[in-house]
Backbone:
């Protein structure tokens, strides 16, 4: 979209009045505006590149070609192994695209200034919003469901996954085995979509799986269930998904206005 973004666009996206946007832009302190509203307006301003302030110009012209990734800390050893594989995959992928990837500790509460954008992998929606409050560089959700059109989300196309599993197992019942997630919205979504699902937290959970059709999407689980003959493995991460993630990051960095912020791959 080539048209110039107006103050009305910012007000509409932020769900506030034009006057409120004006007060925030002009840093008015004589009027009472809540911190939550101010942060929301600033996030929309940054996303749409409404005002040509120094911060916006720096983001547009002084690209560092460096991305940050953050993951949930309180998880099982299996989940940590999956996180490491994801970081390695993305590091290699982005390196080919001339981007570096740095890891941010989950307890990092300061404004991230060393990266162009932050990738949040399978984090809770609560933490995602907290991170968004502290940072005005683009924030992207990977494999977690965030109900906020201000931010790009890249998730597995579970409807397509469901159809492929149904076709592979010829309509027979199967168990979807997936690692426990910190994102409650994603957990609820999966429970509602799949008739039989097991969220794995440790090795003991795998021992109780009976001889049945199994669907898995995480690379960490594949070798642990390799002795089964009834497994259908469809990796949740792929080059196509990484390309979609990169495109979302580029759109966010360039303040490209698009209608669809929830990308399914």
Residues:
């Amino acid at each position: 979209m080539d048209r110039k973004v107006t103050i009305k666009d910012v007000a509409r996206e932020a769900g506030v009045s034009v006057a409120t946007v004006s007060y925030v832009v002009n840093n008015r302190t004589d009027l009472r505006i809540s911190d939550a509203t101010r942060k929301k307006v600033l996030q929309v301003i940054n996303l749409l590149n409404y005002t040509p302030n120094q911060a916006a110009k720096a983001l547009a012209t002084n690209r560092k070609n460096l991305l940050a990734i953050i993951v949930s800390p309180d998880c099982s050893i299996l989940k940590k192994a999956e996180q490491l594989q994801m970081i390695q995959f993305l590091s290699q992928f982005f390196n080919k695209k001339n981007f570096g990837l740095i890891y941010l500790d989950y307890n990092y509460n300061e404004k991230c200034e060393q990266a162009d954008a932050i990738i949040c992998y399978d984090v809770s929606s609560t933490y995602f919003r907290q991170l968004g409050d502290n940072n005005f560089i683009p924030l992207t959700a990977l494999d977690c469901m965030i109900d906020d059109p201000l931010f790009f989300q890249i998730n597995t196309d579970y409807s397509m996954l469901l159809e492929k599993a149904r076709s592979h197992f010829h309509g027979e019942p199967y168990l979807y085995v997936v690692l426990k997630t910190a994102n409650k919205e994603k957990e609820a979504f999966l429970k509602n979509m799949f008739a039989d699902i097991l969220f794995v937290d440790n090795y003991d959970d795998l021992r109780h799986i009976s001889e049945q059709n199994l669907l898995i999407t995480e690379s960490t689980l594949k070798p642990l269930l390799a002795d089964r003959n009834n497994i259908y493995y469809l990796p949740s991460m792929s080059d196509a998904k990484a390309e979609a993630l990169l495109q979302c990051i580029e759109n966010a960095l360039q303040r490209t206005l698009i209608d669809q912020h929830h990308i399914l791959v």
